[in-house]
């Protein structure tokens, strides 16, 4: 059984994940850049082993990771800090999970490091948190219910009474300067975020979602090759959705002109800081989420709808990362290279893991 390492353990998501692993009976190795902070957390959690490595220090992280380990990376924003962990895991032959929600980074894992991991017989499962495991599960369950006539699937994420961490804000801000994508006409096509605004029914309410480049665009067609279209949507208020759609269109020059993109990235880094904490336990206890999956025919007819309901997105992320790491360490992965949640664990096991992390179907 491989070791589990939590990289970024003293950050907001890393701390939650480490605590969940310990609550589940595991003794993960905690990896972070500040020696005093990581040792204090390790002592608090029962004398865990530690390693010190910065997100930019490939040699230090490589010295801590061994073939067959499971590296859980929580060092967002990933476009700024995440590449070292992905590269080390792929080159070492360690399994890899992360908490990213950044579409460009997810695509990098699939296209750049996934083939390297496959050569070593290890698996990489990016975006294994609230972004974007529930959508893969909801979409897959809807496709299973709909049968072979379903060639399109749409998934939408909604959170209620939800607090946002600094790392999440930094990731969202950074994504505004990245080119988006979408699975359309049977292939991955360029598409800016928030290009499409549509509505979904959630518990009798009509809620608004804007299109985003999610992991499902890569993960679901791999599991269901018949898919011609995949839509991923983030639920936000209608006025915000319209503003975001316009802003996404107007920011096109900044995304495509190198000097403007570099200036924008530098400005975002100064204004929006990552790893500075997030919502406390009382706020998370009030939060809820819902994720909708719709399977459609070629004509657009809705053939099946599945709704998942669950707890605070950060608590869910910690729970599903812990489940995925435990399952991977015990030999429960079903393939190598870059994988989506269904391809990595199988649909029934994934449903069980999501239920353990607090999601319910129906």
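Q: What amino acid sequence fits the structure above?
A:
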């Amino acid at each position: 059984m491989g070791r589990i390492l939590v990289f970024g353990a003293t950050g907001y998501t890393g701390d939650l994940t480490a605590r969940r692993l310990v609550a589940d009976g595991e003794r993960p190795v905690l990896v972070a850049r500040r020696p005093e902070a990581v040792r204090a957390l390790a002592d608090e959690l029962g004398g865990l082993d530690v390693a010190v490595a910065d997100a930019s220090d490939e040699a230090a992280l490589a010295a801590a990771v061994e073939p067959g380990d499971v590296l859980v990376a929580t060092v967002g924003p990933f476009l700024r800090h995440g590449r070292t962990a992905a590269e080390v895991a792929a080159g070492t032959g360690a399994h890899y999970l992360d908490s990213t929600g950044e579409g460009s980074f997810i695509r990098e894992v699939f296209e750049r490091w996934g083939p390297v991991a496959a050569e070593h017989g290890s698996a990489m499962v990016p975006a294994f948190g609230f972004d974007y495991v529930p959508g893969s599960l909801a979409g897959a369950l809807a496709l299973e219910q709909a049968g072979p006539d379903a060639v399109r699937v749409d998934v939408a994420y909604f959170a209620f009474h939800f607090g946002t961490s600094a790392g999440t804000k930094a990731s969202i801000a950074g994504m505004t300067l990245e080119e988006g994508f979408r699975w359309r006409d049977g292939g991955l096509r360029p598409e800016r975020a928030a290009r499409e605004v549509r509505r979904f029914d959630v518990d009798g309410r009509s809620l608004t979602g804007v299109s985003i480049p999610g992991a499902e665009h890569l993960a679901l067609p791999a599991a269901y090759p018949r898919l011609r279209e995949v839509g991923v949507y983030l639920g936000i208020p209608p006025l915000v959705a319209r503003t975001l759609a316009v802003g996404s269109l107007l920011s096109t020059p900044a995304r495509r002109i190198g000097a403007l993109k570099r200036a924008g990235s530098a400005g975002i880094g100064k204004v929006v800081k990552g790893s500075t904490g997030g919502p406390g336990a009382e706020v998370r206890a009030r939060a809820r989420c819902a994720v909708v999956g719709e399977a459609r025919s070629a004509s657009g007819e809705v053939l099946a709808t599945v709704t998942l309901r669950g707890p605070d997105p950060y608590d869910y992320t910690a729970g599903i990362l812990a489940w995925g790491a435990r399952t991977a360490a015990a030999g429960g992965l079903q393939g190598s290279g870059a994988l989506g949640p269904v391809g990595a664990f199988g649909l029934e096991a994934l449903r069980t893991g999501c239920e353990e992390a607090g999601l319910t179907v129906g």
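Q: And what stands out in the fold?
A: Residues 155 and 347 are 16 Å apart (CA to CA).
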